[in-house]
Amino acid sequence: MKELIEKMQDSKIITYFNELLTNGQMFHSTIFSCNNQTQLENIVEEIIRMTICENHAIKNDGCALCCKFEKNNLLNLIRIGDGVNLIKKESVNELITSFSSSTFEQSSLKVYLIKNVENLTETAANAILKLLEEPPTGVFAFLLTNDRNQIISTIKSRCKTIMVEERVVDLDIDLELLDLIQNNKKNEALLYSENFKRKDKKEQIEILNQIYKKEILTNRQEVAEFFLDTILEIKRSSYTNLIIENFFIKIFEAPIWK
């Protein structure tokens, strides 16, 4: 089965899904792809609210389910993943078990959200695949990703893919790291790397993504793949210190500095 892809702006995505819901044509499973995690989560959370809403209203209409959604105590909605760390099979099994429970709101619709689907382990991906292949009646899947190329093809082929157009914003970039890279300050990189290790994983990933977009894609394309590989390694590892050390050593040994 071929992957179905459409690219849209935020406002058009809301209207598009409202029409699907109103006409009873909602997709059982949808992948939403965007580099901007905050933008991605905001748009999908609003679509989920609209899906569960008693009236499928574009704006929060104050219905009982919208109110419960806003208070984050809606039993029909299950979220797994944090957008950064690996998602293990146990989390998927808990999801499947939850949908077997009878403790749901009056709405017959049930929704699960995965942040992010590229973070699924192999066994977790296989477990989700079974759910996608035979979706229970009234269950809708929303799968987030920053890189759809990291998702296994069998999952992509069973979902509608929406490419969310990334809004152009001024990045709150880490100027210290940008200066190190732009001016090849190898001697200062070690000290910076020690400070970098003390940041939480989400912040580490955000900083590297910002530098990648601002500097690497434009002026350091020779290390672009290495940059992306490092971001992926950090996302998938529970112990990032060695990855970070290797990154700061190798980034200044790259051919671009010769």
UniProtKB/TrEMBL annotation:
It comes from the Bacteria. One of its GO terms (biological process) is DNA-templated DNA replication. InterPro entries: DNA_Rep/Repair_Clamp_Loader (IPR050238), P-loop_NTPase (IPR027417). This is DNA polymerase III subunit delta.
